[in-house]
Amino acid sequence: MKLTEVESEMKKSVEATQRSFNTIRTGRANPALLDRIMVDYYGSETPLKSLANISAPDASTIAIQPYDKGSMAQIEKAISLSDIGLTPNNDGSIIRLHIAPLTSDRRQELVKLAGKLAEDGKVSVRNHRRDAIDAVRKQEKNHEISEDESRSLQDEIQKLTDKYTDKIDKLLAEKEKDITTV
Fold it and tell me: Residue 47, exposed/middle/buried by CB under 10 A (0-12, 13-18, 19+)?
């Protein structure tokens, strides 16, 4: 087991957690809110961002301009059925989503959701640690590496784990600050 492989996997877990955080509303318009939305476009599930230009012209509006005007109804339907809780307004050429200010209760729910996503990211990092340590112990058992090398590698793996769980904690703190800032 190479440390660079373990670090790469842990880095991917942190990046996935960051992408999850980007899909949480903060009260400000952010095109990343729509990243998870899939549209039924001619029979296949297609990401919204590949069907339309998505922008945030101001702090409370997201504008969606489809490349194909014929797909507007499907885009509207996909947004309405999604879990983001926004109602699309269609003017014939652009779909607008108005972002209402968040209530304090809703902000607390979103902070809890962010905490859950952060914990999922940490679990992923710890799973990579477990797999790596198991591989090192197996190498030691098969006499491929010495006991000292095994202990040293396990210590390095733990340091990587600590480093990446700390990164997730920092991302969570930033996201909580974004959510609670009015």
Answer: middle
For every residue of 101-153, DSSP letters joined together read PPPHHHHHHHHHHHHHHHHHHHHHHHHHHHHHHHHHHHHHHTTSS-HHHHHHH
Q: Which CATH topology does 3-21+103-180 take?
A: Topoisomerase I; Chain A, domain 4 (1.10.132)
Phi-psi group of 7: left, alpha or beta (phi > 0 → left; psi -120 to 50 → alpha; rest → beta): alpha
Task: Return the domain boundaries, the chain.
Answer: 3-21+103-180, 28-98
Residue in this structure with the two tokens 């489809």, named with its chain if needed = 66
In the structure, what pLDDT confidence band is assigned to residue 182 with cuts at 50, 70 and 90? low
